Amino acid sequence: MNHPISGFSKLSKEEKINWIAKEYFSAPIDAVALLKNYWNSDEKLQQLHDEFIENTITNFYIPLGVAPNFLINDHFRTIPMAIEESSVVAAAAKAAKFWSSRGGFKTIVSNTEKIGQVHFIYYGDPSKLEHFFAQTKARFFTDTQSITKNMQKRGGGILSITLKNKTHLLANYFQLHATFETKDSMGANFINSCLEQFAKTLQSEAQQYAGFTQEEKNISVIMSILSNYVPNCIVRAEVSCPVEDLEEKGIPNPLEFAQRFVQAVQIAEIEPYRAVTHNKGIMNGIDAVVLATGNDFRAIEAAIHAYAARSGTYSSLSHAKIENGIFSFWLEVPLALGTVGGLTSLHPLVKLSLEMLENPSAKELMQVVAVAGLAQNFAALRSLTTTGIQEGHMKMHLNNILNQCNTTNAERVAIQNYFNTNAVTHSAVIDYIATLRN
Ligand code: MEV
Fold it and tell me: What would you report as the CA-atom Rg of the chain, rounded to the nearest whole angstrom?
């Protein structure tokens, strides 16, 4: 029977580990040793990581890989990717190489607007609220000047504030809906600080507004928070080439390949079950770069999937066509990213990843991330419509099986040689290891 604990966060790291080990592990000494094995010997570095969150007990590794040869707008880049799935970096690198000799990736950022809302309840005449808002609007800007001053110097700030009547959806529910430009920062703190000030201004100005009855003056702010849905913060990435240029080893008939590829995308456009998996493949690339560059992948995931469902039906984020003998494949995604602030100046590997990307602006990072998503989608669809996904996937997964079976270096060489020409399946590998060991 396990026990609850009070004051856990006040314990030292050592005490926390000891409590967990005693409470949950049959071999507490081994559990403590394993946790400590992942501590960094550089105490300052460890302290930095300890302080990112509460109750840190150790570090949790994910590999940081790189995919070179990405030609993006005529500029070669090596893309850092933090991800645990075996085949993702290999697939990205393969797609990068493929497109580097076919014109590369072309990208464009169409907008970078962010959104925040003050959600409030107002019991009264909506036309009076509109009148009040029109009179008070300037105050929202002046009352936030101390917050917006620095952002304005960088070319950003509050773009607009509008009053929205949502009472047809929920009784007495209104919003202040504001848009922001946050330049190279993701902007969450900036936006939330502005919104909380809007809420204060809204309530205090309402109290003083002579046109309101006492009930109307008592505006009840429910919450003030940015929206992670950013349909006006959009980047597009595209590849295209004459159909015949798609030919290479594995694509003997480029027209047939292009047609099957376009059909695979069309299926994801109209079939939500397929669209989710199709988009998951895109997110393999997107999340890996988002994580490596210290951005909030949960926010990115939430925004992108909402965008994929904006028509009312969940659909593919990417599209493809063959027109006048040209094969084109493109993707459009919302990406609210930052290259300053947050983890970007704290986590040493995030700083390194950003430096590898030549310290991009947020707009440049949006382009790199979208390209990683498109490349991943291309690689997945190429495999799915030709050899099937398992061939490449299992090749990469082979290492995981070898690790599970604690193979020696000599066994690994023999196994790699054998599976260069034989299909990798879990049972085939297990059987072959047994044969070697006998
Ligand atoms: C696996 O992580 C991703 C894929 O399933 C994507 C897809 O099916 O397009 C291969």
Answer: 27
- Ligand 1 pocket test: pick from 266, 267, 280 the residue with the most ligand atoms within 8 Å of its Cβ: 280
Is 59 part of a structural domain of the chain? Answer: no
Check pocket membership of 380 for ligand 1, CB cut-off 6 A. yes
Q: Is 2 inside any structural domain?
A: no
Return the minimum-mean-pLDDT range out of 81-90, 117-126, 245-254, 412-421. 412-421
DSSP assignment, residue 155?
T
Give residue 380 CA to ligand 1 midpoint distance, Å: 6
- Tell me what percent of the residues of the chain surpass a pLDDT of 90: 92
My answer on whether 89 and 153 are in the same domain is no
Q: Which residues contact 161 (CB under 8 A, 6 or more apart)?
A: 137, 140, 141, 176, 177, 178, 198
- Digit-coded pLDDT (tens) for 16-46: 999 999 999 999 999 999 999 999 999 999 9
Is there a single domain that holds both residue 281 and residue 327? yes
* Residue 266 counted as domain residue: yes
Q: 41 forms bridges with which residues in the sheet? A: none
Residue at a domain's end among 189, 204, 227: 227
In a shared domain, residues 270 and 352: yes
Closest ligand 1 atom number to CA of residue 278:
9
Q: State the chain's mean pLDDT as an integer.
A: 96
DSSP one-letter code for 8: G
Q: What is the DSSP letter of 416?
A: H
**DSSP 8-state secondary structure symbol assigned to residue 251:** B
363 classed as catalytic: no
Range of the domain at 418: 393-437
Q: What is the pLDDT of residues 94-125, one digit of tens each?
A: 999 999 999 999 999 999 999 999 999 999 99
Is there a catalytic annotation at residue 131?
no
Q: Clarify whether residues 285 and 178 are in a common domain.
A: no
How far is 357 from 368, CA to CA, in rounded Å?
Answer: 9
* Active-site position among 16, 114, 183, 393: 393
Does 86 contact ligand 1 (Cβ within 6 A)? no
CB of 284 sitting under 6 A from ligand 1? yes
296 has catalytic annotation = yes
| CA 92–ligand 1 middle distance (angstroms) | 13
> Is 22 part of the annotated catalytic residue set?
no
Distance 428 CA to ligand 1 centre (A): 23
